Structure formats: structure tokens, C-alpha cells
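Q: What would this chain look like folded?
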Amino acid sequence: MLSQSKQKRSNRIRYKLKKSNRDSLRLSIYKSSKHLYAQLIDDKKGITLCSYTSLKKDKSKNTCNIENAKIIGSEIAKAAKEKGVKKVYLDRGPNIYHGIIKTIAEVARLNGLIL
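A: My prediction, written as C-alpha cells:
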């Protein structure tokens, strides 16, 4: 559960992104204290096209780190290529664009997604 200020920030960012990127798909990244989640969302149809998470690795360890961020960025880019998606916009939620979030975005760019 997000705190009230983080939820407000997340809603504000998501509203502005959806308003300016009506025709693109959304790459949503969520970072919990132990795991990372990334998914491609089509807001027009209201469906998730593909997703990848660090839950698949090891549930007992903390997998929210840079090494797993690189894996998630490359896997989500591969899944998007299989679906025929090239251009997306980044929804970072309440997180600041640095560290793990930045790593996921950069690796996804290196693997062919246009952010």
C-alpha cells in the first residue's frame, strides 16, 4: 500500500502521461521493497499485453536490485517485440527516475523499445 503522498504523485504523473500519449502503449514499472514488476498496458482496450516480474527468480531473497532490473528490462523488451510493439511511454509511478527505474528504461531502449 502506498502512502497518501506517493499515491497522489502516482496519480498526477499517470494522468499527465495518459493525456499526452493517447495513442501509445504504457510501460508501467512498480518497485516494491523486495520485487520489481514491469508490464505493457493498452489503455484504450484496458488490457495488459505482456508483463515480467522478479517473482520468478527466488521468492525468499530480495530481488529488487540493479542486476534483476537489467534482466527485467531486456525481457520486457523481448516480449514487446514478439507482440509487435516498438514505441511505448514510461510510467514510473511514484518512483524517481534514477537507479533501478532508470536501469530498466535504459536496458529496454538498448533492446529495441522506443521510450
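The longest strand covers residues 25-31.
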